[in-house]
Each structure stands twice: as structure tokens, then as C-alpha cells.
Design a protein that fits this description.
It is built from 6 helices and 10 strands, in the order βαββββββαββααααβ. By secondary structure, the chain is an alpha+beta fold. It has one domain. The strands form 4 sheets. A 3-stranded antiparallel beta sheet has the order 1-5-2. It has a 3-stranded mixed beta sheet with strand order 3-4-10, with no helix packed on it. Strand 6 and strand 7 form a beta hairpin. It binds iron/sulfur cluster (SF4) (2 copies).
Length: 204
């Protein structure tokens, strides 16, 4: 049966877009310390930065929900001869690639990234019409993408629980939450507020 087989070309670990544009690999809170340690061990610059933030009006702080691994030309963990130097420990977003997820209202959707060299070459053979075909063409990557969806839902449930316990107020229950509150916008509007990771806020 025909299915995805990575060419190991490294295209997805390089920034192939225009100059000045930075590439962002989304990273989840439970992956941060492992990646920081790997950066130290591999003696590479830690390019992890907060990405999605929610302003917590109750405590006047910014709640960091996700991070990104940023790079201008090539990922710090990539070696031109060896490929990804943290292959088994790479972020789930890398493990699921070329399958990626995005959020529409409260639902998560999956898509195949056509920037991938393999997909680009086999686009006529690989064009899944539904999730079952997606799973057939990308069995391992589909599993990882499902994990990403679960992570996204866990974040949402955590926020709901924290709001219900009146520990935070990011406006989810009141319907005021801006889902795409990014770091640049938040850092300008709430420049003196400290940042806290979502999972560092304890539930009762
Ligand atoms: S972590 Fe590895 S797989 Fe992910 S972008 Fe960096 S080098 Fe590529
Ligand atoms: S671009 Fe596609 S084929 Fe090339 S290394 Fe990345 S996942 Fe593999």
C-alpha cells in the first residue's frame, strides 16, 4: 500500500520562505524543559519563546499557553550531515509533520502540508478526502496529530476549570476571550504584566 515515507531531505527543518520571515515550530508546555535540556546538551542556542498568551484580568498577568521554536535559516537542532539531532525527542509538531492541525472555533481540524517535499512530489497520489484516508497515507503522523488535538483540548479544559474555580479570568466563560492573542500584541498592551505558564497555576 502507498503511504508516506519521509525523504529525510530536511526541507521542513529549514526556512525556505522569503528573507526576514522567521519559521515557527509550535511547542507545548510539557515539551519545554526537555528541549531546554537538549539545547544545553547539544550546545545550541535555545530559541524557545512564548507564543500564545491569554491576558488574565483577575491577576494582571499573562498566561503562556504555547511556545515556539524559532529560526531564521535552519533549526538549531539540525545538522546538515546527520539531520535532526534530537530525532526521537523532537517536538510532537515535528513528529506529526506533514500532518498539521488548526483550530476552528472549538474544533480542531487536520490538514496535509503541501510544503513537504514528499507531498509535493506525490500530490497526485496523496490527497486524502477524509480522516480515514489521511490515517491510511500518514499512519504515524496521524497518530501524532491526534495527540496534538488532545493537547489543545486539555489546554481548553484547564482554562475552563481555572475560570470556574475563579483562579483566573481570561474571558473564556464570559465569551470575551480572543483566541489568537499573540505574544507581540500582548507584550505591547500588557507590557508590565509578568508571564506564567498555564500548568504552573494550580487547581484546587
Ligand atoms: S526539531 Fe528536528 S525535526 Fe524539528 S525542525 Fe528542528 S531539526 Fe527539524
Ligand atoms: S519536507 Fe517532508 S520529506 Fe522532507 S524531511 Fe520534511 S517531512 Fe520528510
Amino acid at each position: 500500500m502507498f503511504f508516506f515515507k519521509c525523504f529525510k531531505c530536511g526541507k521542513c527543518c529549514h526556512n525556505v520562505k522569503s528573507e526576514g520571515y522567521e519559521r515557527y515550530i509550535p511547542v507545548y508546555l510539557d515539551e519545554i524543559s526537555k528541549l531546554e535540556n537538549l539545547a544545553l546538551k547539544n550546545k545550541v542556542k535555545n530559541n524557545l519563546e512564548p507564543d500564545l498568551l491569554y491576558p488574565d484580568i483577575l491577576n494582571k498577568r499573562l498566561i503562556v499557553v504555547t511556545y515556539v521554536l524559532k529560526f531564521k535559516d535552519v533549526c538549531a537542532f539540525y545538522n546538515e550531515k546527520l539531520g535532526c539531532t534530537i530525532y526521537n525527542d523532537r517536538p510532537i509538531t515535528c513528529k506529526s509533520y506533514p500532518v498539521s492541525i488548526w483550530k476552528e472555533h472549538i474544533n480542531y481540524m487536520m490538514k496535509v502540508n503541501t510544503d513537504c517535499k514528499f507531498v509535493e512530489k506525490n500530490i497526485g497520489l496523496i490527497s486524502p478526502k477524509n480522516y480515514s484516508e489521511l490515517e491510511t497515507f500518514f499512519p504515524k503522523e496521524y497518530k501524532q496529530a491526534k495527540k496534538l488535538m488532545i493537547k489543545g483540548k486539555e489546554i481548553l479544559y484547564r482554562i475552563i476549570e481555572l475560570e470556574q474555580q475563579k483562579k483566573i479570568d481570561v474571558g473564556y466563560l464570559s465569551g470575551k476571550l480572543d483566541f489568537f492573542y499573540d505574544v507581540e500584541k500582548a507584550e505591547v498592551e500588557y507590557k508590565n504584566w509578568e508571564k506564567i505558564n498555564l500548568y504552573d497555576i494550580e487547581l484546587d
